[in-house]
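Appendix B, Record 12. Input sequence as logged:
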Amino acid sequence: KANKPIVYASYPITPASDILHELARHKNFRVRTLQMEDEIAAINAAIGAAYGGDIAVTGTSGPGLALKGEALGLAIMTELPLIVINVQRGGPSTGLPTKTEQSDLLQTLFGRNGESPCIVLAAATPGDAFETAFEAVQLALKYMTPVVLLSDAYIANGSEPWKIPDIDDLPEIEVSHPGKDLGGNEFQPYERNPDTLARPWAIPGTPGYEHRIGGLEKWDGSGNVSYDPDNHQHMTNTREAKVQKVQQDIPPIKIYGDDSGGVLVLGWGSTFGSIRAAVKARREEGIAVSQVHLRHINPFPADLGDVLSRFDRVLIPEINTGQLRMLIRAKFLVDAAGLNIVRGQPLMQEDIENAIDQLLEPN
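Logged structural output:
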C-alpha cells in the first residue's frame, strides 16, 4: 500500500525468529531479509534502509531490545521511520526464552539514554498482529519516527481464525519524497510539517537534497550540529510533541460493557482473551464490570483519562509486576489495582475472575 519494498534485518532470537523465517519466503513481494551477525548490526542495517527510503523493520525479543537501545536512540535523533518488533519473553538476562511475559513495557518506553520518545503499539491477538503491524508502518512513515510494536511468546506461538483482508480494502499509505526544484534555496532536512511535526524524507542522491544526519543534536530546520541550550530544549520538546500528535490518529476507546460505574478491567497485549472471557462471565452473572484493551501505549488515547474517571474501580491484569499500572497511576492519578502473575504462563480467566471478585468485596 506504500509502494515500497520492506527490508527486514534481524538476528535470530526466540521467540521472534519465525518472522525472519516467514519473510524470507516472500522475495517475490519485494521483501528483503537480512540475517545479521548480532542485534546491533540488525537495527543499524534497518536504519540504513530507512535512510535509503524503504520500509525498515527489525525484530527481536527483550535481550535484543536492550542491545538495540543506543541505535534506536539514533533513529529517534535522525527522525527516520523504523519499526522495531519486540516479541517479549521471560527474563531477565537469557531468562525463559520459550515462555511468555509482558515485562518489557517500561524498557520500551524509557530504556534509552536521554529524552528519546517513540511510538509504542501492542498487539492483542495473533490476528490483531496484522492490523497493528500495518498501523505501525502507517504511523512511522507519517510522523517520521520509530515505532515499537510489542508482541509476546503467547501471541507468537498462538493462532486463531483470521480472514485475509482484501488488499483494495486496506487504506493507502501516502508517502512523499521531496524532489522538486528548490529555486536556489538550500534544503532544510529538519523543516517540519505543522500537522505532524515530521521532517521531509529526502532520498539520498536526489539532486539538491543532499543532507547530513547523525546522532549529535540538530539545529531545527537546517539539521546542523547544535550545542545551543535553547535549541536542545526546543528539539527535546518537539520530539515529544511529535509522538503526542499521534493521538489525532487514534480512534475513540471502545468499551466492552457499561460506559461507567462498577469495575473497569484495563489491559494490553496478549491478556485480551482471558480478560474478555472473565468480564463476559461476570457480566452474565449481573456484575457491573467492563473491559478496555489498549493498542496504543505511547501516546495513550486522548480520551483514556475521561474513560478511567467514569469507573469506581480499575483493575489492570499484567504478566509483570505492574508496569502499565505504574504508568496509569502516574499519568491519571487513578488508584488502579493490579493482578500481577509472572510465571512464564498466560493469565487465566479464573485468575481475572477472582481478582474482580476480590475488588468488589466490601472492605
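The chain has a mean pLDDT of 96.
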